[in-house]
Amino acid sequence: MPRYALKIEYDGAPFSGWQRQKDHPSVQGAVEAALRRLEADCPPIAAAGRTDAGVHALGQVAHADMAKHWDPFRLSEALNHHLKPHPVVIVDVAEVEDSWHARFSAHERRYLFRLLNRRAPAGLRAGKVWQVATPLDVGPMRQAAYSLLGRHDFTTFRASECQADSPVRTLDRLDIEQVSTPLGPEIHFHVEARSFLHNQVRSFVGTLERVGAGAWAPEDVKAALDARDRAACGPVCPPQGLYLAGVGYPQDPFAAL
């Protein structure tokens, strides 16, 4: 049974999240429905990560097992046809080994969070950014972010309902970038790790926003981390500014495309 890696882009706004749910629309459900238009008995797909309701993706990766061999380009074209009108696009397809797994073969997840820092309503970017009207000072935010890098117990920055066996994770990157756009200034958070806890990125961003606004000092973030207590976390920011930007593998299955 041939296995195919799918690189997927989607707008998370209409969905209850990635994971298939019985009574709510999901990205996984939309992709599986498109696959079953091609092969009625196509088994469930597996993804590199489960995004929450309202979270978007630029480079989610999933794998699908098919009954027959498909040309990768033809498979992507057929899936995109059947995915309409959902805001879900198959960007790339590659045939992979049977042992390759979208989740377990991955060694890195990359997230982007977009914060629009202006008073005027988001307008064209509504649903795609978190808007904060108060001017933010990026310097202290960067100073605070540095204390989060490395291997830590991130109990403070994970959701109380997180089902991970351990709160210990290694954060490889948390860069904060000021971006000037024709529609107003944005602050981008670039976050990378092998794996993340539930709500970890949104907890980081919400807490760092408090630093940028002057409500927290940079050292307060280190104290919150050391507390290992969810109550010590700053506010969790909303999901619409969060994007699963990409997934890293020891050998990129899409490199030849």
From TrEMBL:
What catalytic activity is recorded?
uridine(38/39/40) in tRNA = pseudouridine(38/39/40) in tRNA
Q: Does the keyword tRNA processing apply?
A: yes
A Pfam family it matches:
PseudoU_synth_1
Any idea of its EC number? 5.4.99.12
The residues that the entry says bind substrate are Y111
Q: Which CDD domains match?
A: PseudoU_synth_EcTruA
Q: Name one GO biological process term.
A: tRNA pseudouridine synthesis
Q: Using the UniProt record, name the top-level EC class of this enzyme in a single word.
A: isomerase
Has keyword Isomerase? yes
Record text on subunit structure and interactions: Homodimer.
Q: What does this protein do?
A: Formation of pseudouridine at positions 38, 39 and 40 in the anticodon stem and loop of transfer RNAs.
The record's listing under PANTHER family reads:
PSEUDOURIDYLATE SYNTHASE (PTHR11142), TRNA PSEUDOURIDINE SYNTHASE-LIKE 1 (PTHR11142:SF0)
- Record NCBIfam families: hisT_truA
What HAMAP family does this protein's entry cite? TruA
Record-stated family: Belongs to the tRNA pseudouridine synthase TruA family.
State the protein's name: tRNA pseudouridine synthase A
- The source organism is Aliiruegeria haliotis
Q: Which gene encodes it?
A: truA
